[in-house]
Amino acid sequence: MKLQCGGRLLDLTRPVVMGVLNVTPNSFSDGGRFIGRDAALAQADVMVGEGAAIIDVGGESTRPGAESVPLQQELDRVIPVIEALAGRIDVVVSIDTLKPDVMRAAEAAGAGLINDVMALRGAGSLAAAAAGRAAVCLMHMQGEPRTMQAAPHYVDVVTEVDAFLRERVQACIDAGIDRSRLCVDPGFGFGKTLDHNLALLAALQRLCVDGVPLLAGLSRKSMLGTLTGRPVEQRVHASVAAATAAVLGGARIVRAHDVAATRDALRVAEAIVAARQSALPAQES
After folding, report:
1. Which of 234, 170, 45 is nearest to 34 (CA)?
2. Which tens digit of pLDDT belongs to each residue from 194-242?
3. Whole-number Cα distances in Å, 61 to 100, 195, 242
4. What is the CB-side half-sphere exposure of residue 81 using CA atoms within 13 A?
């Protein structure tokens, strides 16, 4: 399985880590730590050295209750960083945004992947992505960031998220975006309770749209805090456990803050998946 990220083909035969690089003052986990070009570049270098295959740059927090950031402010935060990274690191640079103007500017600056929590449903976003060559991650979110955790409700969360992701994949294909440029994300924590998140993680294999890789973003999220009682800065072990479960369920990309620990977990999970697959013919015979 491969993902076409602009001029770069990302090999997903083995699961990979997407390192989180927030250049915002208010992200839920590391807000304020990497504001400024030099701090952001230094952190990107660390994550690449630890094995990240993608660096995901975000200039607007989408945590519950977060307010929208003005367009120019978001551009000022992310474009200098993306331009510098594109000429500095030999991995895919991703832009985490829901604004079409930022998508276009980021791709022009060297981004090879658009990571959109709105799954290109915003005005102009689908057209902006279709006009470029970058890959797109389509994420499920019920509601919008400011209110998404107020009262999430589903009749059947797995069925509804699966239907949404399939519809967005088809909308992209209809708009001229090749399937090879698409990946999907069930959106853990985006308009979902703990029970919703656990149901999705347990049934992740059902969400793997045919031929489209699945991304899982569970790192340090509040569901892990609820399960462990740990504050956000002490959730690395829970995050690693969740990443392992995600890969066992079929995820090919894991979005993470703690790259080295997550990469080790992915190697273990990958070995288990390989052992499971090699045992299938013997069991079937």
Report:
1. 45
2. 999 999 999 998 887 788 999 999 999 999 999 999 998 899 999 999 9
3. 16, 24, 22
4. 31
Q: Is the pTM of this model over 0.85?
A: yes
Which residue type does 227 have?
L
What's at 283, amino acid-wise?
Q
* Residues acting as catalytic residues: 221, 255
d(CA 75, CA 41): 16
On the 0-12 / 13-18 / 19+ scale of CB atoms within 10 A, 198 is middle
**103 residue type, one letter:** M
275: number of Cβ within 10 Å: 9
Q: What is the CATH number of domain 2-284?
A: 3.20.20.20
- Residue 99, classed as helix, strand or coil, is coil
Task: For the chain, give every domain's residue range.
Answer: 2-284
- pLDDT, one tens digit per residue, over 131-151 is 999 999 999 988 776 665 667
Structure tokens at 275: 């052992």
